[in-house]
Amino acid sequence: MTAAIAVTPKREDFFVHKFLFRVFVLILVTSLMMPLLASSEDGVLDRVKNRGRLICGVHGSLPGFGFLNENGEWTGFDVDYGRAIAAAVLGDPSKVEFVPLKAPERFPALQTGEIDVLIRNTTWTLTRDTQVGADFAPPTFYDGQGFMLPKELGVTSLEELAGASIGVTAGSTTELNLTDTMRALGVDFNPVVFEEIDTLYNSYEQGRCDVVTSDKSQLVARRQVLKDPEAHIILEATISKEPLGPVTVHGDNKWNDVVSWTVYATFFAEEHGITQANASTFETQNPEIQRFLGKTGDIGEKLGLSKDWAHQVVSAVGNYGEIFERNLTPLGLPRGVNKSWTQGGLLYAMPFR
User: Which of 16, 82, 84, 138 suits a disulfide with 56, CB 3.0-4.6 Å?
Assistant: First the structure.
């Protein structure tokens, strides 16, 4: 016969404490997991739909890309892509709030949820893709870094910039590109770093730096608003690859899909001759185009959008070529590689099937 084990008061306390500890751990783990579960169930797409408005981070003072004009109206290439996303998600391109951001403010604003999407001349790099809590959508503009300087200097090459003071914006990829290039060429220079783009170009025009470097698209845009644009030249040299496009917060794949396919929609529309004017009357027997326009299939449902979301995008802002011509052609920017693959460019829409 097995003897009964006597349970002493101390042993009872041990079991009670062990039980309470397990309950405490369970409550703690549950409380820590709740925000993550809520986050997965209530991503940016749901947040935008519930709010009824998209919040888009943009440049505030770059003509052609993101610019608040004298009438208080937002204009620009990046601004139009913000409107395109609003049209895709909410069916109305006007349901978007634009937030002007300085370069160092971009990623914190995205990470904290201050903005839903960042469309502000932001270069896709390995470091940014892995270290700043961001996921990139397809590039909408392939750019490269260049140099602008007074024509009277007579400079035609980077080697002639030895000893020059070169202005650059803080918190951008241009700082590292500048240092790497000049070091490789063995050219000594004096970097002058500015926090804001307006201060950079005002200082350049006032002679506080000899040269200014940035993406060539930005140089072209800012040269237009200098007192005497013709007195300044942009060197032929291009020292980097700068693929620019929309950025979403890291880990929200559903939202990144929506932004990415909105970009592809503008590429696809240009490939097939679908424009802002004919999107509503476009007739075709092409099954892929019919799916694109929402006449057949359920590709909108797969994205969490309406059946005619792509039609809404093109009706709101036009195809890629129209967006480019409206905003960038007036600045004198050529299409270059920013053409459809059917025209020898780099823009290529993934299949809508």
Answer: 82
Tell me the residue range of the domain where 294 lies: 46-142+244-343
Same domain, 289 and 303: yes
Q: How far apart are CA 284 and CA 278, in angstroms?
A: 12
Beta-carbon contacts of 86 under 8 Å, excluding residues fewer than 6 positions away, are 53, 54, 56, 92, 93, 94, 95, 96, 316
Per-residue pLDDT tens digits for 247-297: 999 999 999 999 999 999 999 999 999 999 999 999 999 999 999 999 999
334 part of a folded domain: yes
Domain boundary among 190, 206, 240: 240
As a whole number of angstroms, the distance between CA 199 and CA 170 comes to 11
Q: How many other C-beta atoms can be found within 10 angstroms of the C-beta atom of residue 227?
A: 7
205/187 Cα distance (integer angstroms): 24
| DSSP three-state, residue 196 | coil
- The total of structural domains in the chain comes to 2
Provide the pLDDT confidence category of residue 172 given band limits of 50, 70 and 90. Answer: confident
Domain stops at, among 221, 240, 259: 240
Say what angle helices 320-327 and 77-90 make with each other, to 10 degrees: 140
Query: How far apart (Å, rounded) are the C-alpha atoms in residues 262 and 5?
Result: 71
| Sheet strands side by side (includes 134-136) | 96-100, 54-58, 117-118, 247-249, 134-136
Side-by-side strand order, sheet with 145-150: 190-194, 165-169, 211-215, 145-150, 232-234
> Does residue 174 share a domain with residue 205?
yes
CA 210 to chain centroid, in Å, comes to: 30
**pTM of the predicted model, to two decimals?**
0.84
Tokens of residue 34, six digits: 């709740």
The SS3 call for residue 19 is helix
